[in-house]
Design a protein that fits this description.
- It is built from 7 helices and 6 strands; from the N terminus they run ααβαααβαβαβββ.
- The longest helix is centred in the middle third of the chain and has 22 residues.
- 37% of the residues lie in helices and 15% in strands.
- It binds flavin mononucleotide (FMN).
- The site of flavin mononucleotide has 11 residues, from strand 3.
Length: 257
């Protein structure tokens, strides 16, 4: 069975049942058809729908049930616009310092500085976010997509095991619940650009960030202006499957072929 036939929920098998070869059930359909939405209607989301989405986050599992998260809701267009301005200022400064493609001088000299920074900040300067930041700096792509609402996820450092995992699970619960309600979402890792902003202490105060909480991620949300079909491509995933004796080599299950 291929992932991706967007059949809605009509004719879906009921939840809590399984038969070999059956179609995707409504929960699986929501998982497979959720997409990151980067274009939103301006009208605000009703508070009730945001509350339901938050509840899905609140009920996420976490190590030792330590619930290592706080969620901060922003529905003020003014505040989201301020965050956009501050994040963009940081991106422009980064790119001014690190974009080595703009001139001969930069390709010859600045490239070494950029390589050094890439080593120091390998995750921030991973090629995909780096390319996205170039587009942002050129004004081609916004950071928060002018969404009417945002949920900022804070991580409690005291959480059991790895609290980042708990935050991720809570966030995924929320984006899945949102999609099931027709609300579009997009994770915004770039919210952490604000940590480099000259207004960072102001944001810390406004978002209530202080020990033991730290800024983890954000999710923007709103009514989508368009329905996105299909999926972003995923790599074929080889899953070793140990099904025989302890010394036998695993069978490789190839997902996505
Ligand atoms: C932790 C996390 C952070 C992300 N940050 C951003 C971001 O800052 N900006 C953005 O446009 N997309 C962001 N995304 C969305 C991913 O680009 C997207 O999930 C991925 O390309 C797969 O596409 P899909 O969500 O439509 O399936 C983020 C996703 C995750 C899980």
């Amino acid at each position: 069975m291929t992932v991706g036939s967007d059949q809605g929920t009509q004719g879906c098998p009921p939840l809590g049942t399984y038969q070999e070869g059956m179609d995707w059930n409504p929960v699986e359909n929501v998982i497979f058809h959720r997409r990151s939405i980067r274009s939103y209607r301006k009208d605000p989301l009703p508070p009730g729908v945001i509350r339901r989405i938050l509840e899905a986050g609140r009920f996420a599992p976490s190590a030792g049930n330590s619930q290592p998260w706080l969620f901060v809701v922003i529905t003020s267009p003014e505040i989201i616009a301020q965050m956009e301005r501050d994040a963009l200022r940081v991106v422009r400064t980064f790119m001014f310092l690190m974009d080595y493609t703009r001139s001969w001088f930069r390709r010859t000299f600045v490239v070494h500085f950029t390589k050094l920074m890439t080593r120091i900040f390998p995750r921030l300067l991973h090629p995909v976010p780096f390319a996205a930041m170039m587009q942002m700096a050129r004004g081609e792509v916004p950071v928060f997509f002018e969404a009417p609402a945002m949920i900022v996820l804070l991580k409690d450092r005291r959480g059991a095991a790895d609290p980042s995992l708990g935050v991720g699970i809570a966030g995924q619960n929320m984006v899945i619940a949102a999609h099931s309600l027709g609300v579009g979402t997009c994770w915004i890792g770039f919210v952490r650009l604000l940590c480099w902003s000259r207004n960072w202490f102001k944001w810390k105060r406004r978002l209530g960030i202080g020990y033991p909480y730290e800024l983890a991620e954000a999710i923007v949300l709103g009514w989508p202006t368009e329905r996105r079909h299909g999926q972003s491509p995923r790599e074929v995933l080889e899953v070793p499957w140990l099904e025989h004796g302890a010394d036998d080599a695993p069978r490789l299950e190839r997902l996505g072929e």
